[in-house]
């Protein structure tokens, strides 16, 4: 275990990264909003496979929350986060204030099309990916990292950020990591702590239903009927379903059968006040 450095300004982070690069060391960035769990630490471990130095950003980004969403109550657990990152031998935490990221007069945003405009998360959170892309673009250019590691749990986000980094020639390689799950299949998420005991017991239904749906698609069952049956099962179980869809795994365009290309199943559903998302490949 080593003590992790904490950078609160772009200047401090860039000075450290410049020294690492001057020494011939690669640098990886793991962007987070804090409230870290085992899935985040897995991202750090993956980053260490690609780079000698790893920075974990902790920033609850206000621009990706809609007015009705949980920005103010989003968990902030810096002391616990720092202890976990020290145990994981991360090199540094980038912990900027909102004013450091969005100083007075800030007036720029990243305009998105492609995987950001396919009628999934963007249909329910129309400003979300603009906020995600803007903060990620800033983090990438602020850190000058060689790699950035993202989990596949936020699959549309992964595709949006990968597309943006490529399109804008940001000079950073996006590294995906498979979703980390609890033993009962529930995708690890900082928002899982909002679930009541009864809701937590029901939550793994999402993964179970998606696994069964994937099996039906692999068995060449009619895709539309298989998806419709799975949607009905989710709603009957007590979820408020935003979407459960089969999409092309790369473009996120709608598909009609396995012949349309690799398929990804994506879901978003609510249990009480908590919104859960998940996805699996077929």
Automatic annotation (TrEMBL):
It catalyses: (R)-pantoate + beta-alanine + ATP = (R)-pantothenate + AMP + diphosphate + H(+). One of its GO terms (cellular component) is cytosol. ATP binds at residues 33-40, 151-154, 188-191. Its EC number is 6.3.2.1. The keyword Disulfide bond does not apply. Gene3D superfamilies: HUPs, Pantoate-beta-alanine ligase, C-terminal domain. InterPro entries: Cyt_trans-like, Pantoate_ligase, Pantoate_ligase_C, Rossmann-like_a/b/a_fold. Beta-alanine binds at residue 64. Pathway: Cofactor biosynthesis; (R)-pantothenate biosynthesis; (R)-pantothenate from (R)-pantoate and beta-alanine: step 1/1. GO terms for biological process: pantothenate biosynthetic process. Keywords: ATP-binding, Cytoplasm, Ligase, Nucleotide-binding, Pantothenate biosynthesis. Belongs to the pantothenate synthetase family. Catalyzes the condensation of pantoate with beta-alanine in an ATP-dependent reaction via a pantoyl-adenylate intermediate. The reaction proceeds by a bi uni uni bi ping pong mechanism. Homodimer. This is Pantothenate synthetase.
